[in-house]
């Protein structure tokens, strides 16, 4: 197994106004996820959230620490959220195995020393999406299934945004220091997510898109509401959303995405909404 590590600094909205397509992609698109037998870690300087992945095929992928953390072990001062979007797999936390099926999640609290990812069947490997943020308190490690989580039924077919938001790591379901994560599944025929769009200057967010058919893309909208930009996103790619940015997408086909947030509070509903007519 090998490690791919990238470092991404934060941006100012006045600066981003002047970015062309390539520069927007360089700063916000994450297109190196889900590489077999690689621990992928993209360290963002937005709330120091790490966007990563582990796809174990030949053996286990181990959550090794990296020099940038200057930590004895990866979760010495961090918490971790894991969601499996592939075949059945197991996450071992200090020797305790947690079986994670498709769309199931694991919260791993600060202090876990040995975390490793394994696929149950190498021919249909698990694909673990990872978000990790700094933590200052140790909360218990928890396995969360789709049945355990809170579900929001949003949108309508008439507005092409009928979708179900599965809040896997959310206040009331699992205790975390700052991490919130969930899955949003679009109904057939619906292509818009997060419309009306919103901003939450208290928290950053990352959107990871998957389940797209061959050749399909999601056009992800970002920027300040009055100064939007777009990024075309392919399957298994993510966009890092700064606190000042809206984050919304429209697919050329159906898709699912994982959202992960970190920042000031745990109030999922404290977003500032912008109707389509307010966007520029
Ligand atoms: O702050 C919350 C996040 O942006 C997402 O949960 C929104 C979302 O999945 C959707 O509306 O489709
Ligand atoms: Zn949001």
TrEMBL record:
Instruction: State the InterPro entries in the record.
Output: KduI, KduI/IolB_isomerase, KduI_N, RmlC-like_jellyroll, RmlC_Cupin_sf
Q: Does the keyword Zinc apply?
A: yes
Q: Which residues bind Zn(2+)?
A: 198, 200, 205, 247
Task: List where the protein spans the membrane.
Answer: none
What does the entry's cofactor note say about binding and number? Binds 1 zinc ion per subunit.
User: Is Zinc set as a keyword in this record?
Assistant: yes
Annotated Pfam families: KduI
Entry's Gene Ontology molecular function annotations: 4-deoxy-L-threo-5-hexosulose-uronate ketol-isomerase activity
Q: Which reaction does it catalyse?
A: 5-dehydro-4-deoxy-D-glucuronate = 3-deoxy-D-glycero-2,5-hexodiulosonate
Domain of life, per UniProt, equals Bacteria
Q: Which cofactor does it need?
A: Zn(2+)
Give the EC number(s) under which this enzyme is classified. Answer: 5.3.1.17
This protein's pathway: Glycan metabolism; pectin degradation; 2-dehydro-3-deoxy-D-gluconate from pectin: step 4/5
Q: Which UniProt keywords apply?
A: Isomerase, Metal-binding, Zinc
Role played: Catalyzes the isomerization of 5-dehydro-4-deoxy-D-glucuronate to 3-deoxy-D-glycero-2,5-hexodiulosonate.
- Family, per the entry? Belongs to the KduI family.
Query: Can you name this protein?
Result: 4-deoxy-L-threo-5-hexosulose-uronate ketol-isomerase
Q: Which organism is it from?
A: Rheinheimera tilapiae
């Amino acid at each position: 197994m090998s490690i791919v590590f990238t470092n991404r600094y934060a941006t100012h909205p006045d600066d981003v106004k002047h970015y062309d397509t390539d520069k927007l992609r360089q700063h916000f698109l994450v297109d190196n996820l889900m590489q077999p037998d690689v621990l992928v870690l993209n360290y963002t300087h937005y709330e120091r959230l790490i966007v990563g992945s582990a796809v174990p095929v030949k053996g286990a992928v181990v959550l090794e620490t990296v020099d940038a953390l200057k930590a004895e072990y990866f979760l010495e001062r961090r918490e971790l959220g894991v969601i499996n979007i592939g075949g059945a797999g197991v996450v071992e936390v200090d020797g305790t195995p947690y079986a994670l099926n498709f769309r199931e999640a694991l919260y791993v609290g600060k202090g876990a020393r040995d975390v490793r990812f394994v696929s149950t069947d190498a021919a249909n490997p698990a694909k673990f999406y990872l978000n990790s943020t700094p933590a200052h308190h140790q909360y218990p490690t928890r396995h969360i299934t789709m049945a355990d989580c809170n579900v929001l039924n949003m949108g309508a077919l008439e507005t092409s945004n009928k979708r179900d938001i599965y809040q896997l790591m959310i206040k009331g379901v699992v205790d975390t220091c700052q991490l919130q994560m969930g899955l949003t599944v679009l109904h057939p025929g619906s292509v818009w997510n997060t419309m009306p769009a919103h901003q939450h200057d208290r928290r950053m967010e990352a959107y990871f898109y998957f389940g797209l058919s061959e050749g399909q893309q999601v056009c992800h909208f970002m920027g300040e509401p009055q100064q939007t930009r777009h990024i075309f996103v392919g399957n298994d790619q993510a966009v890092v959303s700064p606190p000042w940015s809206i984050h919304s997408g429209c697919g050329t086909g159906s898709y699912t995405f994982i959202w992960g947030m970190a920042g000031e509070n745990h109030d999922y509903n404290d977003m500032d909404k912008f109707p389509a007519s307010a966007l520029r």
